[in-house]
Amino acid sequence: MERAEQLIQLAGTVEGVVFRNRENGWSVVDISCEGELITAVGEFSELSEGEEVELTGVFVNHPTFGRQFKASLCTTKLPATAGAILKYLASGAIKGIGPVTARRIVDRFGSRTLEVIEKDPDALAQVQGISLKKAEDIHLEYQRVFGIRSLLAFMAQYGFSAAEAIKVWKFWGPQAQELLCENPYRLCLSFIGISFDRADAMAIQLGLSPESGERVQAAAAHVLRHNTQNGHTCLPREKLAAVTASYIGLPPERVDFEIGEMLERENLVEYTGEERPMIFLPDYYRAEGYIATRLQMLISFMPDNGTQWDRQIAAQEKALGIVYADTQREAIAQALRQGFVVLTGGPGTGKTTTINGMIELFEKDGRKVALCAPTGRAAKRMSAVTGREAKTIHRLLEAGYQKDGTLAFTKNEEDLLDCDVLILDEVSMVDVLLFEALLRAIKLNCKLVLVGDYDQLPSVGAGNLLKDIIDSGFFPVVRLSHIFRQAAQSAIVTSAHEILEGQVPDLAQRDKDFFFLPARDKPSGLALIRDLVTTRLPKAYGLSPADIQVLSPGRRGAAGVQQQNRILREAVNPAHGQPEIGYMGMSFRQGDKVMQTRNNYDIVTTQEETGEKGTGVFNGDMGQIEEIDRKNGLIHIRYEDKRAAYTPDMLGEIEHAYAVTVHKSQGSEFDAVILSLLEPNPKLYFRNLLYTAVTRAKKLLVIVGSRRAVEMMVENNRKTLRYSGLGSFLRDILG
Predict the structure, then answer these.
(1) Rounded to the nearest 5°, which phi and psi values hold at 622?
(2) pLDDT tens per residue, range 325-383
(3) For the chain, N or C: smaller number of CB within 10 Å?
(4) 668 touches 696 (CB < 8 A)
(5) The domain at 503-715 falls in which architecture?
(6) Would you list which residues are annotated within the binding site for ATP?
(7) Which residues contribute to the annotated binding site?
(8) Same fold: 183-278 with 293-483
(9) pLDDT at 305 over 60
(10) 721: which DSSP letter?
C-alpha cells in the first residue's frame, strides 16, 4: 500500500490573488511565508491581500506553473494592526471600499476599524465620502464575506467543500449555520444537491438520534428523489416504507408513521388510484396532475372543418407531386382538426414528410408554428429537415438560474409563447417536469403535436410520458408503419423493424450500410473497435474518426464506455506535446472529443458562421477541445455550430465522448455507429435498447460482439417498470 503524502502546515500573509472563482471558491493566491513567496491553490473563502492564513496541504509540481502548495484546509486570522487592516481593505476585500476610502476609515478608527464595521456601522458615516446608506451597505457586505467564511469553516469540519458552502450560503444566507445545526438533513431536502448519506454523517457527528423523525423523513424523501433518477415519479407506499427501512436500519412501521407525518405537512402527497396508495414528491404530483388536466383541455378544442382540410391536403399533394400514405394523410388531418395529436413511427416511415406537410398547411392558414426538441442535436436535425428554426425546449422557454441556483423559465403562464401550433419532436426523451413547464407556456388555443418513437428507450428523467399518453387510449394517435421504398433499401432500417418484431437481423449480410463482426473476447473486441475507428472504416468509407460514434449499453466494466474512451483516446488523439489539463482525476487534451453532461444556460457561446454571441450549451452536445489557453485559463470547445470557452472549474460538466452509452445517444444521429456488445448483461441487454442503438446510425452501422448477445437482446422484450401517475390521472379525468 502506498504511503499517504505527509500533510504540511504553512502560515503566512496573502500578497495577491491570482485567480478566484466566486461560484465554488477555487482560488490561486500568492502567500508570503518566512520570506518566501509561495503559490497556493485550493478552495478558499474570499481571501484578500493582507490577510494572515494557515494552510494545510502538500507541495505539488504543476506541469506548466511549477511548484505549488495544494491546500486542503485554510484558516484565516483577521488583520489586527492598522497597517494590515489598511492593506486588507485597500485590496477590495469589502465591496464599496477602495484604496482612498480604506485610508480614510483606518485613519479615523485605526486598529478598531473592523470592529466598527461589524458592530457600529453608523459610525462610518463620520468618514468623508460615506453616507449612512453606504455605511449600511459596507456593513452588509462585511457580514456576507465573513458569514461565508464562518460557514465554510463550520462545514469544512464535516467534509464539505467551499463550493458547497457557497451554495448553502446562497440558499439560506446568514441563517445557514443555525439552520444546519438545528437540522442537518435540510441539506439533502433542498436544491443544493448534497446526498442523504453526507447529511446523515453530519447529523451523527452533531449528536442527532438515528431514530429521529428528521432522519427518517429525510431518508424517505431521499429514496423517492433517488428513484426519480430511475424514471419513477412515485412509489407504492408499502414499497417506499420497506426500501427506506432497509436503507436506514429501522422497522417499516416506524418509517410508515413518518410518511404519515410528511403527508400531514404536505411534504409528500398520497394518491389512491386504481390499485394501491402511491406516494409522490409534491413537484411530481403537481406536474403529472397538470399534464393530465391540460391535455384534456387541448383535446376538447376542435374548431376546424374536416372537409376543408381534406381538400387542402389533396391540393398540397398535387402541388408537391407526391402521394401521402394513408397514415400520413390521417396524421396531417388529425393535426389540422384536433387540438392535440401524437405522431409515432420508426425509421423510414415518413415522419419528416408528414411533419413538413403539417407545417406547410398551418402556415398557409396563417398559423405561427414553433418547433422544438429536448436536445441541441435533435433540434438541429429538426431544423435541417424542416428548413425552419427549431429550438431546444429550454431555449424556447428561456431557461435560466435563479439566485438560489434553481432553474426557472421566463416563458410561463405569465409570459406565453407566441405561437399557434407547437410541434415537439423526440418526445420519448422528455420528462414530466419539463413537459409541464412547456404546457404552462402555451396559449389555451395553441395546437400541440407530439412526435416520437414509441419503441425507443424512455426518458432519462422521471416519467413515461409518451407511453402513458398513448396507452391511455384517450387521444388521437397515428402510428406510421409503412416503410417507404428508398428507406427499405437500407439494411439499418429493415434491421430496426425486424428487431421490433422480435426477429434477429441477418448478421451474415454484407450490405453496404450494416454488418456484424464477431469478437472472440473482450480484449480482441476492444482492439477490433479501435482499428475500425482509426483505420478500417476511414479507409473503406472515407470517414474521419470524428464521424464515427461508438455506443455501448453500459459505462463500467472491462468493455464499458469508460474503458473504451481510454483506449480510443490514445488511438485517435495520442499525447504528442499538445496541452493537457487535469480535473478531479480526469485529463483533457487539446483535440479530445467531448460531451456536455448537463445543461449550462449561462456559458457564453459564439456562432460559427455569423460570430453572433449567445448563451447555453446543453446536455448531450458533442464537441472537440480546440484550444487549451493556459495563459488566460480557458478551454475552448468547438461544437457543431458554436464555440464556448470553459474555465478549469467547469470541466466537471464535460466527459470524453469517443464512446457514449446508448441512453446518452438518444436524440442524436451519427453518420457511422459502432455498437459494442462485448459485455452481456441481462439488466442492460434488452430489445428496445438494441433498437434505439441501431436507429442512431444514418449511413453505416457495425455491431461488434457475439451473435448470442444480439439474440439475447432481441429475445429480452421486458419493459422497464416505471411507476407513474399520469395514466391514472388521465383515467380519472377522461375515463
Answers:
(1) -110, 145
(2) 899 999 999 998 899 999 999 888 889 999 999 999 999 989 999 999 988 888 888 99
(3) N
(4) yes
(5) 3-Layer(aba) Sandwich (3.40)
(6) 348-352
(7) 348-352
(8) no
(9) no
(10) P
